[in-house]
Write a structure and sequence with these properties.
Layout lengths: L5 E2 L4 E2 L2 H41 L13 H12 L13 E8 L2 E7 L5 E6 L6 H5 L7 E5 L2 E7 L11 E7 L2 E7 L3 H9 L2 H10 L2
Antiparallel strand pairs: 1-2, 3-4, 4-5, 5-9, 6-7, 7-8, 8-9
Length: about 210
């Protein structure tokens, strides 16, 4: 039967306490190394997940939404209110951002080369409707465009509401047509010309 194991460093057999201390130290080293390995493994997994998410998510600017289909939206609006609404004839490069009924108003919003232009039709609008829509301003004069006389609103930069710098309004039967936005007189006139025939029709159809 073999005797107690001689420990080279001691030159003698270990005492029971030394054996217990050695085993405890070995266990501590094992647990420490295992914890470190687990930490490294978790870190590597986290990095891998972040890399997958980063590479998998598309970057860059969001695609622009499709332009509004003004004729289709107008047809739906007419079916809803039971009366004609305006479909402006504007240059092809004017993007239609929206076309919808908003309360008692039909409105189309265009984005020309710069700024924006709204063409609104107040349905059975009261006399002060156009002024209220542009922040309470009164007309600064009149202008005739394609045979139609419009009230003109030149809004000073110090008092602009909702970035509105210029506006035109004219009656169309029981309705009021308002052309307005962050625009100039020449651009607004193009939008006004685009509804001339429809304004005449609305006036002729009103008793």
């Amino acid at each position: 039967m073999a005797g107690p194991r001689i420990v080279a460093e001691l030159g003698r057999p270990e005492t029971p306490q030394e054996t217990a201390d050695r085993k405890a130290a070995s266990s501590a080293r094992y647990r420490s190394s295992k914890t470190f390995r687990n930490l490294v493994a978790a870190l590597l997994i986290t990095i891998a997940v972040v890399a997958v998410v980063y590479l998998g998510v598309p970057r860059g600017s969001l695609a622009e939404p499709e332009p509004a289909d003004v004729p289709a939206a107008a047809a739906a609006a007419e079916a809803s209110v039971g009366r004609p609404v305006l479909v402006p004839e504007v240059p092809e490069d004017w993007r239609a951002n929206s076309a919808r009924l908003e309360g008692g108003m039909w409105r189309v919003v265009y984005a020309p080369a710069s700024g924006f232009v709204r063409v609104a039709q107040g349905l059975d609008a009261p006399d002060d409707w156009a002024s209220r829509e542009i922040g309470g301003y009164a007309p600064t004069g009149t202008v005739t465009i394609d045979g139609i006389t419009w009230d003109e609103y030149r809004i000073p930069s110090a008092g602009r509401t909702d970035s509105i710098s210029y506006a035109l309004s004219t009656p169309a039967g029981t309705d009021t047509v308002l052309v307005y936005g962050a625009t100039d007189a020449a651009t607004a006139a193009i939008a006004a010309e685009g509804v001339t025939d429809q304004i005449r029709t609305l006036r002729e159809e009103t008793p």
